[in-house]
Each structure stands twice: as C-alpha cells, then as structure tokens.
Amino acid sequence: MLYYSGFTRRLGDVDEGSTVTDFLPAERARGITIQSAAITFNWPPLPEGASLEQLAGPVLLPRSTQSHNINLIDTPGHADFTFEVLRSLRVLDGAVCILDGVAGVEAQTEKVWTQASHYNIPRIVFVNKLDREGAAFGKTVREIGTRLRALPAVCQIPWWRDGGGKLQGTGDAVGLRGLLWEEGGDGKTLKVFGLSDLEQRDEKLAAEIKKARVALVELLSEYDDEMVEKFLECSEDHLQIPATDITESLRRCVLHSPQSIIPIFAGASFRNIGVQPLLDAVVDLLPAPAERPDPEVSLGTIGGGLRDLLSGNLVLTDHTLAPVSRGNKKALSNTKATFAMQNLTACALAFKVVNDARRGVLVYVRVYSGSVDRAAALFNTNLQVTERALRLLQMYANDALEVSSIPAGQIGVIPGLKFARTGDTLVVYSGANPKTGPPAPLNSLQLRPIAVPPPVFFTSVEPNSLAEEKHIAESLALLLREDPSLNVTIDEGSGQTHLAGMGELHLEIARDRLIQDFKAKATIGNIEIGYREAILSSSTECTDIFDRDVAGKASKAGCTVSVSPLHDGNPNTLGSKDGGTAHTIELQDSNTLTIMTPTLHPDGSAINPEAPSLPPTLPMPIFYTSLSTGVSAALARGPNQGYPVHSTSIRLTFTPETHLFANTTPASLSSAARMTVQHALRVARDAGGGAEGTILMEPVMMVTISVDEASLGGIVHDLTSARGGQVVSLDSEFSASGATAGAGLADGLPQIDPRKIYAPPDPFAGGAVEDDFGDVSTQARQIVARVPLKEMVGYLKHLRSLTGGRGTFVMSFDRFERMSRQREKVVLGELRGGFV
After folding, report:
1. Which residue in 29, 550, 688, 797 is deepest, having the highest Cβ count within 10 Å?
2. 503-526 pLDDT, tens digit each
3. Cα dihedral value 728, 732, 737, 742, nearest 10
C-alpha cells in the first residue's frame, strides 16, 4: 500500500524484515507484528507538489478517482497482543480484515471479528495468499458466512492461469473486467480486459464473473431498496447496472449498523496482486470520520453523544443532562447553562503511549472534535491535570513529521506528556484555569474508555543489586504506561516483583524490552501461574484490638470478624436481621465484605443518644474505605500457602462502645481490620483440620481449538485425560453453535446456510462445490473446553505436533476453580521442587 501510494520507493518484505510498520527489532526477528503502528498516506497518490486542500472539490463518483488521506494502523494478529487490537479498534473508522486463503477463517479471526462488531467497525475482507498451494478462495468465502455470521458479497474472484494454475490476476464483478498483473513485476503494471475481450481470452473466467455479478446484485437487492430500483431501471438485467451504482450500494450496506454484508476482495500481496483494487475499495466503501456514529461521551453517570453535546441538543445544567425536544423551546430558553459550549475547542482520546528512545514518551491521540493546536493546554479529565502540547507530530511508523495542528478525524502524536495514559480523554477549553481545568461538569467529560483484559501469566523480576531497584521500578512504570495489559504487583511474603501479562510471547517481549531497551539489570524468573487459596470452614467471631504507635503517635482500634466460604458465588448474609446498618462491598477475587454497625445510623450517628457515635474526623465514607482497605490487605495472603484468598465472605462488626477509642484513626482501623481478618482466616483453617482446612484454586481457561477431523479424537483425549480439561462443545466449521461458543458471536445473528452463499469453485474442487464441502477428514472442527491454565503453558508446540502444524487455539480467562487434593499435592510438590 505504501509503495503504490508513493510513500516508499521500495517494497517491504516481512520475511526479509524490511517492512515499514514492523520496525521493532523483535518484530523483524520473529516476522510478526507485536505493536500497532500508525502511518498516513494518500490514495490515489497526490500529484507532485499538490495538497489535498488544493484538490478539494465536490465529491466525485467513484470516490477513488479523488485523492483521500488515509490513516492506517497495522495491528498484530497474535492472541497475546489482543490489547493492541482493542485499543486500535477503539479509534478506527473502518477495518480491512486480511484472511489467509489457505487457512481460511481461523479462531483468532473470529475473536477479533467479535471485537470489531462490539465497536460497530465497518469491515471489508481481503483474502490473501492465494498464490500458495492449497489456496481455497471459495471455501474461505463460505467460512466467512458460516463462522463469522456475515453475508459475503464477492466483489473479486481469483484469475487462475489455465483455470487451475498459478494466480495471475483477479476478476472484477463490480466493474465486469479482468485485471492481469505482470508476472514477477512490482505490481504497478497491469492489464485491464473488458468483458468482451475477456470472453475471447478466458471464456471460463468471463462466465464466472457474470455469475458473480448476478449473485452480487441479488444480494444487494435484499438489503438496499435503491439497488432494486436500479435493477428495474436496467430492465432487470444484472449486467447492465453501472459499476458506480454497485459501489454506492455496497457503501450503503457497509455503513449500515449492524453490518450484514461484507465485501470480499482477492489477491496475493507477496506477488503484488490485488493491492490497488483493495485501496480503491478502502476509499470507495469505508466511511469518512464524519460518517461514523456520534462518539459516546459521559459526564459522571450520564451519557450522550459528543456531537449532540456540542450542537446543543444535549444541554448541561447543574451537573445534569437534559435532552432538548423540538416542542420544548420554552424550557430550553429558561435553562441556564453553566458554561459556553463554544469554548470547548477540541476533544481527543489518548489510545496509545510509546516510549521512544530518541523522542521520549509519545502519546498517540485520535481527535474527535475541533483541532488540537501546538502549545494548546490539554486538560486530562481522567487525572484532572493540565499539560501543554509543546510539539505535535504526524507519525509515519518509526519516522515523524512535525505539524502545527491535529484536526478532527486525524490521528497524531503529542510528545513529552508526563501523565497521559491509554484511554484518557484530553480536552482543550479556551479560558480554562490551568489548575482546575474547564468548569464543572465539563471537567468530567470522558470519551468511551478502552477495556483492559485481565492478565493471567506472570514472571518474577529481581534486581541484581539494591542500587538497581529504583531504575527497575521506573522502567516497569514506563512499560506499564505503554501497555496497560501488563500488570506489576509486589508479593508481600517474598518481596518479589511480579510482572503479569496476556501470554507467554507477550511476557517474553516485555522481558526483552525491559533488559535490552531500558537496560535494566535484573534477573527474570520463569513464567508461573497465579493460584488462589480458599477456606473450607467458617470461623467463630474473632475480636482483636490494634494498639500500637503509628508514625510516632499512639493509635488504637478494634473490630470483630467472622469468615465463611462462599458457595456458588452466593454471599453469606449472616446478621441481616440485626439492627443498625449493614454495608456490603464486593472485593477482588469474588470476596464479599459486609460491615455491620448495629448501634449506628447510616450517617454514623448513634441510634441510642447516650451511646458513642463516630467522631467528625471519621466520616462514614472514610470509615468504610479504611476497613475495606485493611480487609483487602489481609486477603492478599492466605493462611496456609500464602496465595491470595478467593471466594470468601467476611462479616465485620464494629461497635463504638468496644472498638472505638480516643486515638482511633483511619490507619488504625485498617490495621485492626487486617489483623482481625488474618486471625479469623487462621481460625477457619484450624476448624477445617489445619492444612486440610484450605484448598488451592487455579485459573481455568476457556480454550477454543481449531483442528481437522482426523486430529479431533487425539486432541479431545489429550485434553480430558492428560490435562484435566473438560470439553464444553464439539462443533464443525459450519455449526452456528460452534461459532457462537468459540468466538462469542451474538446469539441474535442469523445462521447462514453455506449452500446459499455464492463462491467461485476452487481449483482442487473440480469446478463444483460438493454438498459435504470436501473430504470429512479435512473439515475444520472446533473444540471448546475448560482447561487449567497450568496445562496450557507451552501447549501450542504440543498442539502443532499432534496436528501436523495445522492446529490453532485461542484462550481467555474463565474463572478460578478448586483443585482436587491429588492435583493440589502434585502442584505443591512441583512448586517446592522449583518446577513450573
């Protein structure tokens, strides 16, 4: 794309490590994309010396006859880097899904497709690698319909040499023409054959193009009324409809939400075939920024659309949002706005942070309204801080060009910001106080955030010396700011620093960056699994008084605690009939805290006027926060094995008569809660028989494995017998339930019969698609199973050996489950013996 647009003068190659967007040494060494890279170019290429502003004019059809500015983000395909895809999808206007013409729709494809559906991203599909042996364009098209639950609109078909040889070009069903690329060339030289010329050169391809055009018009007519009118105007002749009308109909269907029709294009980028028509399709079919739905914003607990907010259709008054109706002009005129909306000059989302060795910290932003200008004061509504954008950059992968402003709809980079993180909303408000930012409630304006998946793998990071601790802590902070899907925790018992991530490769890359890029002198431990610990018995009520000096001052507090195991996720509601106030807090790891204050009102005052109440220095919000902080600290280390406690109900009773003292502070309350909960956990452990009173819990993954029919039995046997897994479902590639279970596709999507999908015959299929879609032994099957995470470490190598390299899998965290006693002994034995 960059070569044909004139951005580069040479063709990059993944195998040679010479691509523009894969510029990291780790990416070039592995031949994969690890982090998303943004780059800007124009298509069609601008004439030399011209600019888009000079060429601006009325929109011509097709749109690909006019030069457009394209911001391209190249995202990873590996499951370990799914967060890179998530945060890129969050700011995209459209997407090109690239499929392997041999492998077809893979398990990770379904996962990313579901994520794109979640953000309502318009998509087109490019079936790549059709030059490889075994390429099956028709099979891939049917898989798009059956596994992704989308209706494929075949816009191009492969042009095989002599009907079944090498790929030499494509047949264009929209323009009714054949596109022939020069063999071995750079792809810039191609010949175009009209339908009449094509009938003389390759009659079989010409006939297939006609079939593809008929199928395309029939499909569009079902979802686009204007196409029906064009069909009738052309005397119901599918071939007489102009190509521009077909393209506009495709565009309307692509922009419709939810998107039902997916345009399909064909090619082989390694042979430089089919790239220019794909670029034309990006301009012709995918939306401009102004054609996307109104970006979602929130102010506190109230939400709306950014454009509605700026246009006045949503009026903010006294920290509330009031919709404006056409018949409510009087109410609108009486509303006193707390600020002038025209002072909000820009609103942007920071979606990526990168630490560049030469330029420092770079914050990638997508501007949704207005324009971010150089030296503008950016107010971070998430952190409530103001930073100044002293420089603005337009990124070209690893290179940058300094610009004076970043307008709405564009992606740019702001270097030098100290605080901005992934997902933060940045606003520019003229006349705002640099310390306090815009007036309320605009200072709480936030764009839709980016969801961060929880990490499941972790490794230890140990500094080589005490002098290295500070540098390693700073390096880890930079690493976390770049990639929020990483997580750093410190184990209280061992003092170890644990680095957690999404998978083995993810952590491997993070470790390489820590040591090579940040020059951290540290020892990296083996990948380990984060287990949990659960009690099996309830404790009696335990009362403890914390009485120590804190920071040189005497402090004293107490509380009464009882703990009990949670069964099936239902919290123990002991004491719900008691008087006073009961306040329930949901803690991490499915733990529940119920704070009972039987002698107090909800505001902290005593029910009995003669009894003591909470002092003014200890209001109820701080009181609850202090207790929950102490309880969480106690639950971070279990009573037996030292792992965090899971699935426990904690009932904490506080009565001022016995637990409140003159020198009670929030810190002493937290310490008392921590000490008493630890005491209660030990009592519960001893009540269950000492070491047998607790049980280990391990993370269990929901795994979707794609294999062929011949390997199915061996994989299922390996999962259930050797790995302790539980098979949830077995489905063929054309099973709707399999697609739903494996990819999380919405149940509301219609099931599509593959026999009703138009797809050209594949060379090996003998010119026809069989009813059973080929040999049963080669059919793709999906296994959905729950498997302990420990058994999935290094599973990919084992899977490939069982399936001859054809099997793939994706997994996501499901839940923590209790281990059997036998399995617990094995795991503890391995841990004590130093094995992972």
Report:
1. 688
2. 778 888 888 888 888 888 888 776
3. 60
